[in-house]
Amino acid sequence: xxxxxKPKKPLLFYYTIALVALxxxxxxxxxxxxxxxxxEVDYGTFLTMVDQKQVSRVELNGDMIYFTxxxxxxxxxxxxxxxxxxxxxxxxxxxxxxxxVAQKEMNPILNFLLVWILPILIFWGLGQLLTRLLMNKMGxxxxxxxxxxxxxxxxxxxxxxxxxxxxxxxAGEDEAKELLAEIVDFLHNPQKYQEIxxxxxxxxxxxxxxxxxxxxxAKAVAGEAEVPFFSISGSEFVEMFVGMGASxxxxxxxxxxxxxxxxxxxxxxxxxxxxxxxxxIGGNDEREQTLNQLLAELDGFDPSKGVIVLGATxxxxxxxxxxxxxxxxxxxxxxxxxNLAGRLATLQVHTRNIxxxxxxxxxxxxxxxxxxxxxxxxxxxxxxALRAVRKGRRAVNQDDLLVSFELVxxxxxxKGTVITEAEKRIIAYHEVGHALxxxxxKNAQPVSKITIVPHTQGALGYTLHLPExxxxxxxxxxxxxxxxxxxxxxxxxxxxxxxxTSGAANDIERATEMAxxxxxxxxxxxxxxxxxxxxxxxxxxxxxxxxTCAQETYAAADRETIKILRQCHEEAKQILRENRELLDKIxxxxxxxxxxTGQEMMAIxxxxxxxxxxxxxxxxxxxxxxxxxxxxxxxAPARHINIVSEPIPMPDYDEKPEDKDPESTPxxxxxxxxxxxxxx
Length: 680
Prior knowledge:
There is one protein chain. 44% of the residues lie in helices and 11% in strands. Helix 8 runs parallel beside helix 9 (285-300), helix 11 (340-350) crosses helix 13 and helix 15 packs antiparallel against helix 16 (476-497). The chain is elongated, with a radius of gyration of 42 Å. The chain has four domains: 37-100, 2-Layer Sandwich (Signal recognition particle alu RNA binding heterodimer, srp9/1); 156-277 and 284-334, 3-Layer(aba) Sandwich (Rossmann fold), CATH 3.40.50.300; 340-409, Helicase, Ruva Protein, domain 3; 412-642, CATH 1.20.58.760. Strands 6-8-9-10-7-11 form a six-stranded mixed sheet, sandwiched between helices. Strands 1-4-3-2-5 form a five-stranded mixed sheet, with helices on one face. By secondary structure, it is α/β, with parallel strands linked by helices. It is built from 21 helices and 17 strands.
């Protein structure tokens, strides 16, 4: 956790503290320094000591008499003087040494220096000292400190191959690596390109969804090329002072030219590379100034020196066209979500340092994780390793990986969630409705698992689907089938329970989005034929789009969307009415077990005993899990989750997962089971 720094105090605060300290010292400390050395007595005591010949020396200083006694450790006394003409005779009779201190006028120049100049010098010195201390605390006033770093680049420099990352550490992005390998080859062998007259691309822009490995690829290029690697984020060019962003750009490229050949990597380049405002209203002069300087630097440096600029962004659509033209960023490299083979290769990379049990099949995990990026797979493997440690095993088994996948998409179980029997019945029919409608449709995705166990990510229950193949295209019938499956949960509530609940909120949102895409984007509606009614705004983020049509057309598109949803809703209810007996049987079995597999559901549909089915996710206990009976809060809607299945033929790989644990036994690796039927 990053420590929060306290706000800096103004310099006047420290001057005030110093003044108060001096006043306190002058009032309390300085007068008391000599107070313990001088003893004050009355004039009578002084005369008595003189008469008793106890006084050795007397000095008259103004209105005060100072005298010392004749003890071994002479004590200094003081008393007030009186008009006593016999005092001199007494002192002579007692044999005392006495005299008067001559009063001298202080030099006016010295008086001026002490009264005026000295305090000023003291305060000035304290101010300088405090200023230096503050500057040292903030990084110093040298060239490396923040006070002297205005306009200096904050780029992290990795010298030579200190990134520690090569292309072997990047998997699932073979096309991107192939394009970047040419840049690496140019940095290694520039002469063969110069002989033919070719120049290396000045820049390459890495675009793709978050977590696909854009930054990792840039570091791998530097590691392969073994050249200095400058890494900086686009937000680091933004400063509170005008012109500092442009100054940092100049300094960055100055350093890069000094260390050429090298690689300059600007992460999240859309921060400074956004389209410039042509209207002059609401623009950002500082950002545009920084962008203009970046454009000038990209045009100015000599490509033969081997300075390569790499940029990364999730939002290429917002970048300025001048930044994307050839001669600046010559190549646009898409780092997309990995396919089946890419996911398998990525899992093999992330499990290189993980001890795997003999039952681990990474191919099945790759098949089950369609749509996941490299960061998702790395997190999945790490969660599986943590679960294995939590279970006391010395190796990660297949069950750890599968349970970790469900943990990532749905969260962990909430065993203490308050759900009434009536609510549990509605949730069961809701989830079985999804599964049964999917099973009764030709193009639907097979069901893998049904559960009514609440999870931490807001789902009161969910249904996992396993497509038989990884699809990249969807037909109109595929979309309509998916919409019917999504609406089947609410339809089941209406058919069986004669009610509607908020548990279908997420299903309705997804179904509406798919129906609207069918009408507005995919050109699958008879009313609008091939007309595109919307444009995508962020392709690699949320995939949202805005409607670009007249209001009348927008309203007509809404009517077509409603028509599709209403038709699919009625068809889903019709399927459930025709299969009401199966719906009741599966729901009763789900209420008993709380978690069942798609194989158990198919056994009920085919008239077989589901208890004979033995598969991952099935419950073996006949006792229901503990559920409090009195609800206090309304839970979030149930989710409908899709993943990919295993029946996909896998390509051949030379490498096999290594690190088998010979010491792990079947008894160790057997997952623990609970009454709710879901392994931990």
